[in-house]
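FAQ: What does the model actually see?

It sees only this:
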Amino acid sequence: MSDEDYAIESTDAGASATIPMEAGQIKKGGFIMIKGKPCKVLSISVSKTGKHGHAKCNFTATDIFTGKKLEDMVPSSHGTTVPVVNRSDWEIIDIGEDGELTLMDEAGNQKTDVNLPPFPENMAQEIRDAWADGENQVSCTVQAAVGIEQVVAFKKEA
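And it is asked to produce this:
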C-alpha cells in the first residue's frame, strides 16, 4: 500500500455530535435527541414502574432550530442520545442579498457559512432592520448542534 491510495478530504478530531445518556438523568432545560432532531426539554413526567419494572420518562421538548414541539417516551433506565450544543457570539460584518451572513468573532476569525434564521419568521427582518446596511453594530449568537448552525439571538450594540 502506498500513500497515494489514501485521500484524506478533511480533518476532524472524531468527536461525536451526540453523547449517550440514561433517560432518567436528563433534566428540564437540558437537551435530548428526538426523532433525529436536537431538542430542548420543556417538561418531563415520570410514570411509576409498571408490571415489567421500568419507570417511563415522558419528554416534551422543542426543536432548537425550528421551534416545533416534539414528544418522546423512554424507559428511565434505558439510554438515549443527547446532542452536543455549542453557542458562540459573533459580530455581523455583512448581510448578503439572499440572507447570507458574514460574521467575525472577538479573535478576528471570519465565518461565512451561516444564513439569516428561518425561525422565528420575523427575526431575519429584525436583524436586517437593526443592522441598517452597516450603520449599526449588531452581534448575534450562533447555536450549533449535529452539524447544523443557526442564529438564535441578536442584539444591537449601543
